[in-house]
Amino acid sequence: MGSSPRRDRARQRALDRARRQRAPDHASRAVRRFGERIDSPFFTADVARLASGGYTVLEINDGGSSTLPEQLDPREVYRAIARG
């Protein structure tokens, strides 16, 4: 999958939205408590926000098969993580 101006703009909009959408404190606390119960130093969990405003866990795995969506540039994701 190559790059194009349209794809690059869509990627940038997705990154901008992700940066603006911080999890509410109650969600962060819940994720932290949840993570403390998983007996693994590294795992991934797919979480979805419900129409009611709550959250549900869709899947948990060891993280070995985790990948980024095609439209995201890994360098941008890791830069965003490093910036906090």
Number of strands: 2
- State Rg: 15 Å
Overall shape: globular
Distance between the termini: 29 Å
Number of helices: 3
Low-confidence stretches: none
- The order of strands across the largest sheet is 1-2
Give the topology string: H per helix, E per strand: HHEEH
Tell me, rounded to a whole number, the average pLDDT.
Answer: 77
Biggest pleated sheet? 2 strands, antiparallel
Percent in helix: 40-55%
How many structural units, i.e. domains? 1
Percent of residues in β-strands: 15-25%
* Helix/strand structural class: alpha+beta
Short summary:
The protein is an alpha+beta fold.
Keywords summarizing the entry:
84 residues, alpha+beta
What this model shows, in words?
There is one protein chain. The protein has 84 residues and is an alpha+beta fold. The chain has one domain. The protein is 45% helix and 15% strand. The chain has three helices and two strands. It has a two-stranded antiparallel sheet. A hairpin with a 5-residue loop joins strand 1 (44-49) and strand 2 (55-61). The radius of gyration is 15 Å and the shape is globular. The model has no long low-confidence stretch (mean pLDDT 77).
